[in-house]
Amino acid sequence: MKTFIPGRILPLFILISCSQPPEVAPEVPEIKLVSTFDVALDRDTQSKLESQFDAFLNPQNLDDWMKHMSSKPHHVGSPWSKQNAEFIAEKFEQWGFQTEIETFEVLMPFPKIRKLELVAPDQISLELKEPTLAEDATSGIRENLLPGFNAFSADGNVTAELVYVNYGIPGDYEELARMGIEVKGKIVLARYGGSWRGIKPKVAYEHGAIGCIIFSDPKDDGYGRGDVYPKGPFRMDQGVQRGSVLDMPMYPGDPLTPGYGAKKDVKRLAIADAPTIMKIPVLPISYGDALPLLKALEGPVAPVKWRGGLPVTYHIGPGPAKVHLQLEFDWELRTAYNPVAKLKGSIYPDEWIMRGNHHDGWAQGASDPLSGMVSLMEEARAIGELVKTGWRPKRTLVYAGWDAEEPALLGSTEWVEYHRDEIQGKMVVYINTDGTGVGFLGVGGSHSLEKLVNEVSSDVQDPVQDVTLQERVRARLRVNGNRDAEREDLRIYPMGSGSDYTAFIHHAGVPALNLGFGGESSGGSYHSIFDSYDHYKRFNDGDYAYGTTLAKVNGRLVLRLSEADILPFRFVNMAENIGTFIESNKKLAESVTKKTEKRNKLLDQNAFTIAGNPKKTYLPPKRLSDVQDFDFSPLEAAHKRLEASAWNYEKALAGIKKRVLTAEKKIEVNQLLREVEQSMTRAEGLPRRDWFKNMIYAPGFYTGYGVKTLPGIREGLEERNWDETHFYIIEVAKALDRASGKINSAANILKAN
Amino acid sequence: MKTFIPGRILPLFILISCSQPPEVAPEVPEIKLVSTFDVALDRDTQSKLESQFDAFLNPQNLDDWMKHMSSKPHHVGSPWSKQNAEFIAEKFEQWGFQTEIETFEVLMPFPKIRKLELVAPDQISLELKEPTLAEDATSGIRENLLPGFNAFSADGNVTAELVYVNYGIPGDYEELARMGIEVKGKIVLARYGGSWRGIKPKVAYEHGAIGCIIFSDPKDDGYGRGDVYPKGPFRMDQGVQRGSVLDMPMYPGDPLTPGYGAKKDVKRLAIADAPTIMKIPVLPISYGDALPLLKALEGPVAPVKWRGGLPVTYHIGPGPAKVHLQLEFDWELRTAYNPVAKLKGSIYPDEWIMRGNHHDGWAQGASDPLSGMVSLMEEARAIGELVKTGWRPKRTLVYAGWDAEEPALLGSTEWVEYHRDEIQGKMVVYINTDGTGVGFLGVGGSHSLEKLVNEVSSDVQDPVQDVTLQERVRARLRVNGNRDAEREDLRIYPMGSGSDYTAFIHHAGVPALNLGFGGESSGGSYHSIFDSYDHYKRFNDGDYAYGTTLAKVNGRLVLRLSEADILPFRFVNMAENIGTFIESNKKLAESVTKKTEKRNKLLDQNAFTIAGNPKKTYLPPKRLSDVQDFDFSPLEAAHKRLEASAWNYEKALAGIKKRVLTAEKKIEVNQLLREVEQSMTRAEGLPRRDWFKNMIYAPGFYTGYGVKTLPGIREGLEERNWDETHFYIIEVAKALDRASGKINSAANILKAN
User: Fold this and answer.
1) 3-class secondary structure for B693-750?
2) How far is B751 from chain A (nearest CA, A)?
3) Which stretches of A265-371 are DSSP H helices?
4) Which B-chain residues 612-641 have CB contacts (< 8 A) with chain A?
């Protein structure tokens, strides 16, 4: 599904200064971090390999495959999704990979009834239809097309007054409370944006709403951003954003098989007992359909920041607009087809480097996900070509095309859950891609891989500007005045959720990365029928220059991870990033305290009432409970130990001659290195969601895709559960100490040789 | 015309801590500032007088006069403007004031031809008409109505491609340059906002444009803010904002008689030689009329911040939209009628306290200006009632109704120019009002009056909330987290331009104030035919609760200024405020330096090009000339002397018993006190505009209404004229030293007695 942030460009990786060891590790002498080439790879051999790899890449293949695979709707359960899975598997096989299509039987409800009408003050039945456009060859396809709907909405048949709730996130309900407006028994109208969509019905339900309508506002996602399709790339008035509303921040994947693979005969939860299925009916609509609803609302005028791009005054309601919303789904199990291809490693066959991209789309799905899928395929083909020359990877390479990502990351999650033990035993890294575009390389992931990413991004040229990918990103950071712009390594962003890396990094604790290009290919085709080949060719990476470059980047990552005798995990960058997470949590604690004191003082002064407009209802906010003092010192001490271990490892690494290490010792060191990420997980997981086990990163419980760093601590502060914050300060400290232990052990082996 | 800032509430006065003397004046002991009552007024007598005054106030009068005076269009030159002037004069006379109507013959062009049509790609003639509404009794009047136009636009008959220039301020042209777009030979389309309207054609002309169209964007001034008229108070799709585009930041008033009164037989400039008349045709239009123009533009999509509330993608052009704009004016002299009423002072007849409000409006002008005018009238009537009880003011009170404020502050400016010598000899304070509304008291003016304003605002109750006016403003500052919220006195804002105080404070150097209520009465009737009695009654201060309260505030100011034996000018607040102006100019110098270094470094790094999207023209910005070092120390030293003099005066004031001072000494002290403001003027004025003589405040040369503090210094920095900044640092220091001299002289007289 990829992370869609209207009006925002992808977060991008930025610099940390690694040549200066942090002050907190005085026992470690200042040393220059060495490159992977100096300690683990032979530069000439590797460069030659990578040049050969590059030479095999051919953009025409991406175009051919894109055109073929996007020619029909290919959501999970559709005939074309199965066809695409078979097409991909066939190719992998043809390129020399040992391939199978692994299937899971997952719950995937298709809509049977979708009805939305305004019943007061006027009667208007909404169209809920995307049009056929002459300029878009596949827009007329209706066979096997899923119309605009939200996967895992509840069935429902409700009629109630409407309330406009802005983005429908928790802060919006605080504002509604101040306006004296409740949504209990009402249907809420929320606009897309401000959070992952599934948060909107979840929070609406928590506040007593009985239905939820989500519309694409033209300010965020329509003519307010640029010319609309087919004149330009942006969302036209009848374009609808499909998407899942399963409560994935609780657990993604099949809602009926939490924590285990959804194989045919396993025991399943009853649908009524599945906690992640939304409890109220939810429907996405276009801004064309939203207009009469907004026009019919009265009540207070929406606050300035709540106003969108439709040519009306946005009112809150409730009513007099009243709507009837009827939704019914078939609640069937459907087969997800995951083509998985392996190329066995010649030296370390039990160490796996995995690449993945989903192949299912909401409709034609050209940009999302096929743009990333065809890049992955070309990368795999070029690896296959290398094999034809006689080369074999030292480690086992695994390439996958995931099905059913869109409704709930189903294909990848079930695969990880089903193979968890083997994955945790063997997988070194999972590298994800998804829809990709034009512009700047964006990289998120485990910070132990930050240095490797930078080594690669400074070795690959931008296809348009005559600089490396890293230099291009750095130039933008400079122009934007980013304070990390002059750091040696560009920072990679910590990952929340929104694509298939989720189960790997958050559930299994496997180091993961997510990569793609963006920033110059914005548009409004996301999850609509207009995410088509025609749209992609005209407005996105039509010549596949960036798709091919992405293959160069991922190819290098795979080849260096595969060939390095000592895996290129590096912990100085990791420790520095974790230090920033601790710092930002401390700042959050301070700001929560300040906010609490400020608000309560204003209440004592009666300032809200005195400053209030007596003609408008705007109640003072609630008094806040006192914030406790938090002792971050155990965590800070653990962090110092982590920094020391990172520098200890660097010193050991710089000192070795790689050839004096025996194969057994290498395996032992590498085992320890890839266990570092896993050592920072906790079996009991996070509060209210034990599926999420990583103590360093998680998607936000109330943001959905957006990351929370040190989530146990942070969400305790945000949700004012002080006990959780106290508890997780200690738990994160323990996690860091476990990581330090692994790193020091690895260093000790290096030093002893 | 009042300052109209769409989407913003009026600036409000905020606190300074006066109980703590600044560190820089160590020679002065810490003392508590005494109140005016303790040193210059008998509290019991004064309180009784003010209570009597309050008791005379009757909101019904405001309603009666408002209804009568707003019943027809009453711009300068209209029959009803003369009628209103006579009505006001009659009332003043009736209330015991010696009244005359003083006239000036001022240039005031009325439109003869107004034509605007899109000629390509389609042919559309625009309506340029405001509709008659059943809900608004005066909206159907067409007799003597001035249609939508900009006063002092040039005649013109031009056809050219259109370019959308956002607000049309200098920064917007920098952005256009980066997009590679020039306006030379084009007609620009600018939206209202971001500056005073006259800046838009002035800057367009400087860049070579041959015409300028200004529209009200619904985001800033229409349905984007709330329900439109007649359902709600905001601007409807055909509502037009009239207004002047005379280059008033150069000099306001009659363009043909700069610096002297426009009496009948004086020598006048030829129209062609008048530097303040706009050089290109300018026309304001509604957003209904702007829509087809914006729709017809192509070229780059406007930057995010340039996009308004119309349901189209905002493009820049140039073209293919091409427009034909034809404007012709009659360029006639018209008579401005200023009713001026005097009540002779019993003790100090040659010390004048003046009140003024304009009476001309663009059409029916209910809110702007009559809401303030009727409050002033009721205040004058209550003063008249006091006189009937046998009371006489100690000083001479002067009440004026200005004509022709809307086109160029004509009535007040010509009056000040004509009477300048007498004004400078006699006037103590000029207190201005203009359109006023509902909510929070806003006060701007000379900071020597800040303490007096706070004494008054903490003595008058808010008519709705059960707190004083000062407490209400303070509550809002608290809620907004303003750092001055807990200061003892609320700060008053420094004044730029936009109403009739301009000639007093900026040209004659008379201490001045400007007061009004706002913040809870926003709407979109400004300068349209819908600024009517009906609109005001429904959506503004319909019961005149705030209009009557404004009379209480101004009545107190007048009565305390009139009765105080020692005039209530206080200089500790003034010095503290000037200190903040110096500080902000120093910060500006730093930020100009930083911005210059940053930009030039980015150019050296080629960062703009590398980070740029190769598919879009977005050129690097221009390299900036090096910034010089500025030596603020002479100014800071002068400021320390000013602070010391202020504390010296406070000490002297606190020590005196007022009755030991002879009448002659009082006159001598008061003479010195009111000369302080004048001493901070400079005969040669500001660069490029010698009419503006105040060294502390001026309207911005490129903002129009918005104030520039220490304008010689600040605009030198903003316009990168370093020599000006060097020069005015010294000139402002001299001005402060002149003020210190006056203040110390006054203190010495007090001490000697």
Assistant:
1) CECCEEECCCCCCCEEECHHHHHHHHCCCHHHHHHHHHHHHHHHHHHHHHHHHHHHHH
2) 42
3) 287-296
4) 613-615
Phi/psi at A103 (5° precision): -115, 150
Residues of chain B positioned with their CB less than 8 A from the CB of A615: 520
Q: Which fold has domain B572-751?
A: Transcription Elongation Factor S-II; Chain A (1.20.930)
Separation of alpha carbons B118 and B120, rounded Å: 6
Tell me the pLDDT tens digit for each residue of A77-135: 999 999 999 999 999 999 999 999 999 999 999 999 999 999 999 999 999 999 999 99
**DSSP β-bridge partners for residue A325:** A116, A158
Single-letter amino acid code for the residue at B176: L
Tell me the pLDDT tens digit for each residue of B11-21: 334 322 223 33
Phi, psi dihedrals of residue B520, rounded to the nearest 5°: -130, 20
Residue A487 clears pLDDT 80, i.e. is over it: yes
* Tokens describing residue A644: 């020391």
**CATH of the domain spanning A36-104+333-566:** 3.40.630.10
Q: Are B218 and A311 inside 8 Å of each other by CB?
A: yes
Q: Using a CB–CB cutoff of 8 Å, tell me whether B226 touches chain A.
A: yes
Query: Which band of pLDDT confidence, cut at 50, 70 and 90, is reported for residue A16?
Result: very low
**Yes or no, beta carbons of A311 and B309 under 8 Å apart:** yes
Q: Is A476 near chain B, with CB under 8 Å?
A: yes
CATH for B38-107+333-568 (3.30.70.2660, 3.30.420.40, 3.40.50.150, 3.40.630.10): 3.40.630.10
The pair of structure tokens assigned to B59 is: 């909101």
| CB pair distance less than 8 Å for B224 and A610 | no
Minimal-distance CA residue of chain B relative to A316: B226
The nearest CA of chain A is from the CA of B653 a distance in Å of: 34
Sheet architecture: strand order including A111-120: A124-125, A111-120, A322-329, A156-164, A187-191, A211-215, A282-285
**Pair A708, A634: CB distance under 8 Å:** no
Q: Do A607 and B478 touch (CB under 8 A)?
A: yes
**Which residue from A224, A478, A602 is facing B479, i.e. has the nearest CB?**
A602
Q: What are phi and psi of B102, to 5 degrees?
A: -95, 135
Q: What is the CATH number of domain A572-752?
A: 1.20.930
Is the Cβ of A662 closer than 8 Å to some Cβ of chain B?
A: no
Q: Which two tokens stand for residue A346?
A: 């010649």
Whether A608 sits inside 8 A of B471 (CB atoms) is no
pTM: 0.94
- Interface A-B, measured as beta-carbon pairs within 8 A, has a size of 94
Q: What is the DSSP letter of B222?
A: S
pLDDT at position B14, please?
A: 32
Give the tens place of pLDDT for each residue, B678-723: 999 999 999 999 999 999 999 999 888 899 999 999 999 999 999 9
Q: What is each CA distance from B445 to B38, B87, B462, B509, B513, in whole angstroms?
A: 24, 30, 21, 12, 4
A610 torsion bin: left (phi>0), alpha (psi -120 to 50), beta (else): alpha
CB contact under 8 Å between A313 and B226, yes or no, is yes
Question: Cβ A610–B467 below 8 Å, yes or no?
Answer: yes
Contact A475 B607 (CB under 8 A): yes
Encoded tokens for B722: 């370093």
Which sequence spans correspond to the domains of chain B? Answer: 38-107+333-568, 111-329, 572-751
| CA-based nearest residue in chain A for residue B228 | A313
Here the tokens at position A147 are 């119309």
Could you confirm whether domain B111-329 is CATH 3.50.30.30? yes
